[in-house]
Input
Amino acid sequence: MLFGLVYLTWFDTLTVTLSILAIVIIQIINSILATDKDTTTQATTAINGILRKQNSEYCEDHEDEDTLSLENLFPCDQTEIYASKKISFIIDELIQTEVNYLNNLRKGLQNYGKLHERQDLPEALKGSAQNQNLLGNIGEIMSLHEEQILPMMLRNQRDLKSLFDEFAVYFDKNHFYCYVIYMINKKTSMELCKEQREWFQGLQTEINDKLGIDSFLVQPIQRLTRYPLLLQQFISEFYKSGISCKPVLVSVCKLETRMRRLLEVVNQAEEISYIEDINELNLLEQGNFRKSTELDAYNHRSRKKHRAKVFLFDRCLVCAEVRKKRLTYRQHYAWPTVDLQLNNSKSVTLLLKANTKEEYEFSSPEATSITAWMRFVLRVMETSRILAEREGKFSLPMDLVLFVALAVWLIWHYLY
Output
């Protein structure tokens, strides 16, 4: 057939038609998924409404450090901040201790990062897997501070608002999750050091390391706990000095809150490696660890009550029984397979979606505890659902790619 000066064969027409149909089908699928998402979001909103009604005086997600106002949006004169000798000293200490921290990590990796090259290395320390067990991801932590954190501090040491704001972004983007991974490996690392104590003591004497490998391996945790302490000192002196630069105060409070939240997760992550009999599940493949909470649990399968530690990951919930100082693995549930049902202000039931069968009932004597936990779990479940939807789904950028590819094909086919 002839359209103007362009001649189209039936093959050409069929090809273009199929391309257009593919685009239309993709848009229809996206619309359906969007509808499902809206339905789920409405259900989540409804549950949150019930939670707020039951305990309107409690709000977990207070963000007072992020309060917006015109005063916070515009820059302020930071001269009076640097005029305070105590505040200047705190900032200098923040940067200098960062430099010292990096130097300690470099020296430690020089001393213990190449043990595989030694001829007298014990059999228990040989192999890349054992080297990973001993040092964890300390190299990744060093790279973060060497390539990003310290340069950021030096770049902004005369602009504290930018320093605090940029620092907070690293926490918002989860760059400091490497510390959580490091803490999960801590038990394995400590056990290796203990088993090979005599050999490490000999090595310490040989390389003239006054503190030893134990001091090196504890450096990351010490540094992470040091950050909020320095910021608390800064905030205290800020108030004492009567400085009026509120945007800087808002930024430092926001950063200090982010640091405390991460530190809480890091401390809780240490318990993960102490869960016994969990060989069937690789927790490092369950996405990021989010939170652990100790609750009273009733197992509907065994009809027994016990104290439980409930660990929340991006992809699943793990339940472990608390036995004095031990944690014994009981069950884990992938988020797409379960629902949560709020019984009252102090108890929640976990059900299997497939048959609405009750699995666990989690409870707490304090209503605020179970309410806060329920709200946090709902956020994790929503995040899991969104991540699952994105996997293998054509989205708007893919549609644009198809349009561009079609346009290029038409131009090439008919103009050349």
